[in-house]
Amino acid sequence: MRQLLDVFATAFGEPENYRERQPSDAYLRAFLERSDAVALAAVVEEAVVGGLVAYVLTKFEQERFEVYIYDLAVAAEFRRRGIATALIEDLRRIAREIGAYVIYVQADRGDDAATALYESLGKCAEVLHFDIGV
């Protein structure tokens, strides 16, 4: 999990969010044991080169689930090898097993590689995203 945090820090250019102030081992262990969280890692020669973290959302309007891909990244030197697609396909299998009806993900404007990947796997819905401070 710590290796995956490093991949995210580098890929997103956000070391302050993924390297500084990392949670304790106990916190990460508890996170990984949650039934509403999914963490997948792509490993090459015992090194994490990519991965994703997703959340399973229990819906209220029907007895069903949605899966939200929160973070997905592959180290630059391993991109364009199908790793991200394979991670999403593995998540699709997990989503089917738990009875989810959809997986969704957001991409930032200008992130053409991510947008192209997601468009190849699903349909785009234009939405606005708001961060509401607490």
Q: How does this structure look, described?
A:
This protein has a domain at 35-121: 3-Layer(aba) Sandwich (Aminopeptidase), CATH 3.40.630. Strands 1-2-3-4 form a four-stranded mixed β-sheet. It is 37% helix and 27% strand. It has helices at 2-12, 15-18, 25-33, 83-98, 112-121, and strands spanning 37-44, 47-58, 65-74, 100-105. The protein starts with a helix and ends in a 13-residue tail after the last helix. The longest helix is centred in the last third of the chain and has 16 residues, at 83-98.
Rg for CA atoms: 15 Å
Runs in which pLDDT lies below 50 for 5 or more consecutive residues are: none
What is the CATH H-level superfamily of the domain at 35-121? Answer: Gcn5-related N-acetyltransferase (GNAT)
* Record field, number of beta strands: 4
Please work out how many helical segments DSSP would assign. Answer: 5
Q: Which sequence of SSEs, written as H and E, runs from N to C?
A: HHHEEEHEH
**Biggest sheet layout:** 4 strands, mixed
- The average pLDDT is 92
Shape summary: globular
Could you give the distance between the termini? 27 Å
Strand order of the largest sheet: 1-2-3-4
Percent helix: 25-40%
The CATH class of the domain at 35-121 is: Alpha Beta
The CATH architecture term of the domain at 35-121 is 3-Layer(aba) Sandwich
Q: Approximately how much beta-strand content do the residues carry?
A: 25-35%
Fold-level CATH name of the domain at 35-121? Aminopeptidase
**Structural class, from helix and strand content?**
alpha+beta
